[in-house]
Amino acid sequence: MENISERPLHDQLDHATALLERLARAFDTAVARAATLCSRGGRLDPGLLDQHQGMAYELALADAELLAASTLLAQGGNAAPLDVALGLAFVAEAIPAIVERLERVHIAADLDSSVLHALAADPDLRRLRRDASAPDILARLGAAVAEADGDVGAVALDEATILAQDAFRRFAATKVAPLAQEIHRQDLTVPEALLAPLREMGVFGLAVPEEYGGQAPPEGGNTPMMIAVTEALSEASLAAAGSLITRPEILARALLAGGTEAQKQRFLPAIAAGDPLCAIAITEPDAGSDVAALSLRAIPTEGGWLLNGAKTWCTFAGKAGLLMVVARTDPDRSLGHRGLSLFLVEKPGYEGHDFVYEQPAGGKLTGRAIPTVGYRGMHSYDLAFDGFFVADENLVGGKAGLGKGFYLTMTGMTGGRIQTAGRALGVMKAALTAAIRYTADRKVFAAPLAAFPLTRIKIATMAARFAACRQLAYKVARDLDRGAGRMEASLVKLFACRSAETLTREALQLHGGMGYAEETPVSRYWVDARVLSIFEGAEETLALKVIARSLLEDALAAVPGGAKNT
């Protein structure tokens, strides 16, 4: 990686840092103005926030890009030269993109945009783009990325995590990858040939503390290991391997946050062992990502509760023997999320795409797999509960858990969202590697496709975005283990999943016609990546209801007399 640009990397880093600091101040000004427009009496007003959704959405996306860029620059010159150069390439193009987003906010908020215009016209930004992301620089970077076979974005990991990552990479390459295309094209269920060895490797217990039979340390967890394992498995197959961890991750975190000790003792060791497998039943046909609007009823009865209603997009519900179900235990709909509770529903596991489970007393649970363009192997189900009995002992938290279902679900979803970022990393890495290898082999106009500058530019751009996502995901993972980073988990999920769509699209494009053929794995990467921005919280919901809301509330709290909503 010598002579990538005319100006030394440390000079570029200094200029990029100064530019980003100015941009961050402009961002803070825009957030403060948006907070004023979306508040009454020093408190955020949901109705006003909804009126300004376009502005809030741009702020959320700009926040994601800003955090990714600042995370890359925080490495300084400590990373490998190729990674430093890729980071600068990303930052050089992220700054004008963020400026454009903030310009839209400034227009909507009637703010003076002279600061943004000055930044966009700054000679230092022009020099940074010339030295870090000009076409000839990117072409040389792309050649270096290809030479490294896409091995970019290195992060510091402890020895245990490195060993686990290596073990799961080998398993993914030798066991998962050979089955991935058949599972996808034939719409099969994840076979025991994969599940059994994954149970032995402890994959289902990554979020379960050691005292309950899992792999996580007693305090703080080990989120970087979970991401490393997820990334390795998802590189071979998102649906047949990488997503198996999500459901036990969500359920384990929810149980640890609010379950009784008896529930933890009973269920966590089983979850860690992968027997039974888990599924999460949150979404409803008329509610989508609006958890507070859920309506599946839980009606008190002798010894427990009767569930009545429907759920949808419940992934792995057929094979699973344990469902985490969010239900309305208080019929007063005006309570919103305060009327929700969490139940652990036990059922037999079923193969195939549909099932009917009838209880001896007459309760019934029916499931039907939803046909999808991708993400095949686990299958997402429509579920119908008809007088389905759940014992009192399966109400998470017991009586103390009544009305806390929303909070416990959100606690669980924090883990699910950062884990989904790990899944996006795996899919991106698979697509990047496939693009590098195909373009090296494919000849057009009497030369390998990889020999052309535009191909190399595309590969460099893909690699820079992947490296940015990787650095950000592991940073947030470390923050989570320190008790911080909950909002950032949504932010990195938003950023990485959007990036996976872009990157897999480019990888498919570089394959030409073969990329559109089902027999080519890159076509699977593309359709699988598309779901990432939808599940575990649709990107619009995360942007508006989590990220932008948090930004605006923090801005109001910083103003004398202002206060966060509760």
Structural write-up:
The protein is of the alpha+beta class. Among the domains are: 1-133 and 536-566, Up-down Bundle (Butyryl-CoA Dehydrogenase, subunit A, domain 3); 278-410, Butyryl-CoA Dehydrogenase, subunit A, domain 2, CATH 2.40.110.10. It contains 17 helices and twelve strands. It has helices at 9-37, 46-51, 53-74, 81-109, 114-120, 123-133, 135-147, 159-186, 192-200, 223-236, 246-258, 261-273, 405-441, 453-481, 486-510, 521-532, 539-557, and strands at 39-40, 43-44, 278-281, 297-301, 304-315, 322-328, 340-346, 354-358, 364-369, 380-391, 443-444, 447-448. Strands 4-5-10-9-8 form a five-stranded antiparallel β-sheet, with no helix packed on it. Strand 8 (354-358) and strand 9 (364-369) form a beta hairpin. The protein is globular.
User: What is the helix fraction of residues, given as a range?
Assistant: 55-70%
| Structural classification | alpha+beta
Q: Quick one: overall form?
A: globular
Oligomer: single chain
**Main β sheet profile:** 5 strands, antiparallel
CATH architecture of the domain at 1-133 and 536-566: Up-down Bundle
Order of helices and strands: HEEHHHHHHHHHHHEEEEEEEEHEEHHHH
Distance between the termini: 51 Å
The averaged pLDDT comes out at 93
Overall radius of gyration: 24 Å
Strand order, biggest sheet?
Answer: 4-5-10-9-8
Uncertain residue segments? none
Query: Do you know the CATH topology of the domain at 1-133 and 536-566?
Result: Butyryl-CoA Dehydrogenase, subunit A, domain 3
DSSP strand content: 5-15%
